[in-house]
Specification:
The chain is α/β, with parallel strands linked by helices. The chain is about 45% helix and about 15% strand. The strands form 3 sheets. The protein has a 7-stranded mixed beta sheet with strand order 2-8-7-6-5-3-4, with helices on both faces. Strand 11 and strand 12 form a beta hairpin.
Length: about 375
């Protein structure tokens, strides 16, 4: 009654969304569970045993009241240490992490420089701050030109390690620019942590970068880490500032203790098995190149479609054959895509079959 016309317009434009529960027999090539840890029951059991060592297993309150748990602390210390940062901060979700960073760090006389394809959570957070400049996607030259023109007290740059729709990796030059212009650099590693780098730690690992005080890394636990939640890695000074100013950290109930335990278990597993996992991911990227001629940089394979309607048609045709892929439509992306994720557990024969089907549909 209240939004009937708006819903009709969404359906007409093939932009209507529904939450669906898919059959367990479907081969999952849509989720961000890149390393297939979300179904590794041995790790689930290990996380359960870890939580059972404590008297309390739920956060109970916000982090600043009494919600901070020893498992939160252990995870923060571990993920900060292996990534080379001074401090780690657990957060409820990647969405809240972006909101925390951008809303808290960008003060009245500062300027935020944000990539045009940055995640929706960061875009929403940018609406809460005064001075925002958008630079062309992954284009260091455009960013530098805008940095030169800025008279802001502090400059804050926001990029992604791997971009969630295009799958491309942040340009190395942008890291250099941040240091040259004394700018804080926020790197959203939601899709790069666990998927790229020598030890699968993400884009800083990928470029073998020395961690500088102006670098800030955030990432989610609900993708390659096979759990739920998020983290922020930074200098001790920036962590202290966030704990005092970031509203999602101050006013939210502390993150799930069990999910944090599961992420800690999975992080240790990834570090121990990174050569084997890296080989699996590389093998699947090679298959995409061989079958579709796409030299993808990450585990995100975007396949352009002519319309929203066509994207949904191809998705349904693949689902009818037992393969689930993402159909990402406008306005989320400029050009509709089939978004395929060649996850680590997908068997080579099955991946070959679905790639053949996609090639056939596209032709």
């Amino acid at each position: 009654m209240y939004f009937d016309n708006e819903l009709k317009a969404l359906k007409k434009a093939n932009r209507y969304r529904e939450i669906e529960l898919f059959d367990n027999d479907v081969i999952d090539l849509a989720s961000n569970d890149y390393l297939s840890l979300a179904s590794k029951k041995s790790k689930l059991k290990k996380a359960y045993e870890l939580v059972c060592e404590y008297d309390t297993f739920a956060p109970k309150a916000s982090l600043l009241v009494n919600g901070y748990h020893d498992i939160h602390k252990k995870f923060e210390e571990k993920i900060a240490k292996v990534n080379g940062f001074e401090a780690g901060q657990i957060v409820g979700s990647g969405f809240l992490a972006n909101l925390s960073l951008i809303e808290a760090l960008v003060r009245q006389k500062d300027e935020l420089f944000i990539d045009s394809e940055y995640h929706a959570s960061g875009v929403m957070a940018s609406k809460l701050v005064k001075n925002v400049t958008i630079f062309e996607h992954n284009l260091a030259e455009d960013l530098e030109q805008k940095l030169k023109q800025s008279r802001a007290k502090r400059k804050i740059i926001a990029i992604e390690g791997v971009y969630s729709m295009s799958g491309d990796i942040a340009k190395r030059d942008i890291f250099d620019l941040a240091s040259r212009y004394n700018a804080l650099l926020i790197v959203d590693e939601a899709h790069s942590s666990g998927t790229i780098g020598k030890t699968l730690l993400g884009v800083f690992d990928y470029y073998d970068l020395k961690i500088e005080p102006n670098f800030i890394k955030m990432g989610t636990l609900g993708k390659a880490y096979g759990s739920y939640g998020a983290y922020i890695l930074s200098s001790l000074e920036i962590k202290e500032f966030l704990v005092n100013r970031a509203k999602p950290i101050i006013y939210s109930t502390a993150p799930s203790v069990f999910d944090t335990a599961l992420a800690l278990v999975n992080l240790k597993y990834i570090l121990k098995n990174s050569p084997k996992l890296s080989a699996k991911l590389a093998n699947r990227k090679a298959l995409v190149r061989d079958f579709l001629g796409l030299d993808v940089q990450s585990q995100i394979v975007p396949i352009p479609q002519v319309s929203n309607k066509e994207a949904k048609r191809v998705q349904k045709a693949l689902l009818d054959r037992g393969y689930l892929v993402g159909a990402i439509r406008q306005p989320t992306v400029d050009v509709p895509i089939i978004r395929l994720i060649p996850r680590a557990s997908v068997r080579v024969k099955e991946l070959q079959k679905v790639l053949e089907l996609i090639k056939e549909f596209n032709d």
